[in-house]
Structure of F-box domain-containing protein:
Amino acid sequence: MAPPLPPGLMDDLIGEILLRLPPSDPACLVRASLVSKRWRSLVLDRAFLRQYRVFHRTAPVLGFFHDQQCGYADDIFVHRFVATTTMQAPPSLPQPAASAGPSGSAAKGKQYSCRTLDCRHGRVLFHTVTVLWPSSTLTVWDPVTGDHKSFPPPSDIDPYYEFTGAVLCASAAASDGGGGGHLECSGGGPFLVVIAGVDHGEDYDEDGVAWARVYSSETAAWGEATTLDVESFVDPAQPSLLVEGAVYFMVEFGRRILKYDCPAPPHHGHGDPDIIFAAARDGELGAATVEGYKLYLWTWDAGVGEWARGRAIELDIMIPISMGDPSTEFDLAGFAQGAGLIFISANDDHHNIFTVELKSGQITKTGKTRHYGKMFPLINFYTPDLLGTS
């Protein structure tokens, strides 16, 4: 009989096996940590976890957040999370205390409206507005660890003002700005929050002034506003995009973009264009549109100041359209920056959600939905150290 392997060599072999457990199935690594004390020690070792992240490089899409409109009020929203992996439901986000008016009365049902503004680098940004007594709060939350930080918007912004926003790792803003290469973002590091809006006069037909402000968690303070005269308005429901340290916001229902004062990709259909940001392969500003049963990919050419159309992905060929229902329409719902995935919802009887991998063109059914609206994918490693396993 061959002699047993030295303990150190055995640990190395087990580590090599555990290293290859897929991050897209987080339960595998969690279950491995429960096999024995020896395995748990290996899985919780910081050197192993760092190597695990480096080995797999790109964090998986764990699920997505969306806003659900409450049935009794058009302007009351609550956030929901839909898992697309074996990730368990994240811990509950602490909600603000019930609001009360000057008379001390309290509203029945929900006391606040909470909308999702962004999800990036493992953090989610929420904007919460109380119902009866005007106040608003921004919250940056790590759904995996439960860590969160709440702070008010700038004092000169009306509590009921609708603005859009983005949250990003401070180191990402200072470097390449990519969505998936920041392996140490989870863990309470510094972050930035960028909010933007457009102010109009009493007559909404007048030109507006676009503004943007940045909050730093390191200074716990807002910077001065940067302004620009525009003829547009901001859509707070549209996800933002981070490219080369710059944040881009959709304005005027996707017809224009706030950062470069440029037109959106050409739209040949009727009504508002169905458009969403999608970073190009070389880290350039990109976008995607759906027209009929085709998904078009675009890249902004700053040199000539116009959009160049790239690939077209046939959706009717690769997706069983409601098993032959010709009335099916596809809507762009979200983009997982760093993972290169576009979320598409089908408004058929099945309410299916699909992901399109931009690199390969592969389309995968992810789940079902009813009126999710825009989706904000959560991209992160879900490992036992982040769960407080000991």
